[in-house]
């Protein structure tokens, strides 16, 4: 009997999401897969094109384990490369299009990228990045992603570096073999993607995920959000953000129509929702804030499911977004988990609560998803679980199959985050509520300690966001000789306000004083046209902390 229970060649095929595309071509053959302006592909066409890209990569010398990078917005080629690159056996490295040339150069050198697919509107930036390579350092080959639908751009080389584009993306497609036998992983633990963290205060870290981890994350993402067959998915979340939280592969599994767009604003999102009858979309809280603050956004004719994550969304923003007809789901994850692994699983009885209370509950990160083994909030000193009282602060820790296998070429960083007791330490500070729901309060470095009291900046920011005139808000620590630290608020106001509608510093402080304990009230409010952000849209609090030191 024991021999019958052992693994065998029939049941030990490595888990990989790449097979989702083969299935989509068979099950959803002539259904639309990708829509971009006036271009539409079917799932059979997308399958063929991805095989051709993989074939061409192999023909130019890309081998199993090589890193292939992509610098592109949410256009069809970007989607196809999520399959085409790993189908060649290579490791896929999506790079944020908002990075500067120096950071881009650092990432390409660190990853040892062999080839880069670059969108033509970002080609000059890439060439500048390559010019920063040390002399005699081997540079990657380049393939140009052209786009007739976008404004033309000159792709001349930098005067300090000579680089030849070995082909165009469409050339890669045309020259590849549509019957190419794609390279399956030898083991499901083989690396599949390399994603870099945003690196707001230090050098970005290269997060490696295996085929197994990506498979678990993707299946988990579809189940938790209850994505049905044949949805219409609008790509408002950049695919370079953790491969679109796994939905690049997930949408193939359910035969979705992927609506691609190069850039977007509230008006564009509104138009595309109406035109294509969009059912699902994702975005960071900044996207929700943009939509809910837009006077031009058309009322939704039918509800649209929108999944948000990336930072604790202020309850007022959630409330405004839902009042427009969106059904907001909220989750939590990191680059190190490849997508969302904690979600605010909604309970039917909460539907009866007032809107403000529903928004407060939905702002919590929630419980583990089905693909995660465990989530807890622990004392980082002792490793003991904190009390389930919604007040006691600790560090959020995770364990499960979609946690990263480690940081590329950085054993020390891997050791610091993955403990001997089997937890991944996230660096996020949170509480555990009595019902088992986790709520993120801050990054560990963002907690303000004033007179021995811990102040969660996100809690103060949520109050600031409830002020009608406020567009964005951030609260940081400001040194104080008596209290040690005191909260200092930075806010940007909505641009279309009349002079009489703009609140004063005193009015904002009084507003907070009526809604917060006195020690949490900002002592100073600084107005700014726009708050500084990272390349992934997160507010750069470390810059604000430095500025707060000089504020009188």
Automatic annotation (TrEMBL):
Keywords: Ligase
Family matches, as Pfam families: AMP-binding, AMP-binding_C
Keyword Ligase listed: yes
Domain AMP-binding enzyme C-terminal positions: 459-538
MF annotations from Gene Ontology: ligase activity
SUPFAM superfamilies: Acetyl-CoA synthetase-like (SSF56801)
Stored CDD domains: ttLC_FACS_AEE21_like
Domain AMP-dependent synthetase/ligase per the UniProt entry, residue ranges: 21-408
Family: Belongs to the ATP-dependent AMP-binding enzyme family.
The protein, known as: AMP-dependent synthetase/ligase domain-containing protein
Organism of provenance: Citrus clementina (Clementine)
């Amino acid at each position: 009997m024991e021999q019958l229970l052992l693994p065998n060649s029939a049941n030990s095929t490595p888990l990989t999401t790449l097979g989702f595309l083969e299935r989509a071509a068979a099950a959803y053959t002539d259904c639309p897969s990708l829509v971009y302006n006036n271009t539409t592909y079917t799932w059979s066409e997308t399958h063929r094109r991805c095989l051709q890209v993989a074939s061409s990569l192999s023909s130019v010398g890309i081998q199993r384990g090589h890193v292939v990078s992509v610098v592109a917005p949410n256009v069809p080629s970007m989607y196809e490369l999520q399959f085409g690159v790993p189908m060649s056996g290579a490791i896929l490295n999506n790079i944020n299009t908002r990075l500067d040339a120096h950071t881009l150069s650092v990432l390409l050198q660190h990853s040892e990228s062999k080839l880069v697919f670059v969108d033509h509107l970002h080609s000059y930036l890439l060439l500048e990045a390559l010019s920063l390579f040390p002399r005699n350092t081997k540079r990657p080959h380049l393939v140009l992603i052209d786009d007739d639908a976008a404004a033309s751009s000159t792709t001349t080389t930098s005067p300090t570096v000579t680089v030849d584009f070995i082909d165009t993306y469409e050339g890669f497609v045309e020259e590849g073999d549509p019957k190419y036998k794609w390279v399956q992983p030898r083991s499901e633990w083989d690396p599949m993607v390399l994603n870099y963290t945003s690196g707001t205060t230090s050098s970005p870290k290269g997060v490696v995920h295996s085929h197994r981890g990506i498979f678990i994350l993707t299946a988990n993402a579809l189940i938790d959000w209850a994505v049905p067959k044949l949805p219409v998915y609008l790509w408002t979340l950049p695919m370079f953000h953790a491969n679109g939280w796994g939905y690049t592969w997930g949408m193939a599994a359910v035969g979705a129509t992927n609506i691609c767009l190069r850039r977007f604003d509230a008006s564009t999102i509104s138009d595309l929702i109406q035109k294509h009858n969009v059912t699902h979309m994702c975005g960071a809280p900044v996207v929700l804030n943009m939509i809910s603050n837009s006077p031009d956004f058309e009322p939704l004719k039918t509800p649209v499911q929108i999944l948000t994550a990336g930072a604790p969304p202020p309850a007022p923003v959630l409330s405004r977004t839902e009042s427009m007809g969106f059904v907001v789901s909220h989750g939590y994850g990191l680059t190190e988990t490849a997508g969302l692994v904690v979600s605010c699983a909604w309970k039917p009885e909460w539907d009866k609560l007032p809107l403000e209370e529903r928004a407060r509950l939905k702002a919590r990160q929630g419980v583990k998803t089905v693909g995660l083994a465990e989530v807890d909030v622990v004392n980082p000193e002792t490793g003991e679980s904190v009390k389930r009282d919604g007040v006691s602060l600790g560090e959020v820790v995770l364990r499960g199959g979609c946690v990263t296998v480690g940081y590329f070429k950085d054993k020390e960083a891997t050791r610091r985050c993955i403990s001997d007791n089997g937890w991944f330490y996230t660096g996020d500070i949170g509480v555990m509520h009595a019902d088992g729901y986790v709520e993120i309060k801050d990054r560990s470095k963002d907690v303000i300690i004033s007179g021995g009291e811990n102040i969660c900046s996100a809690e103060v920011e949520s109050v600031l966001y409830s002020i009608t005139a406020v567009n964005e808000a951030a609260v940081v620590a400001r040194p104080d000789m008596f209290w040690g630290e005191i909260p200092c608020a930075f806010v940007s106001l909505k641009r279309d306000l009349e002079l009489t509608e703009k609140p004063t510093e005193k009015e904002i402080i009084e507003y907070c004083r009526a809604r917060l304990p006195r020690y949490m009230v900002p002592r100073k409010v600084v107005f700014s046209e726009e708050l500084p952000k990272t390349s992934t849209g997160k507010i750069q609090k470390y810059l604000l902390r430095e500025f707060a030191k000089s504020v009188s």
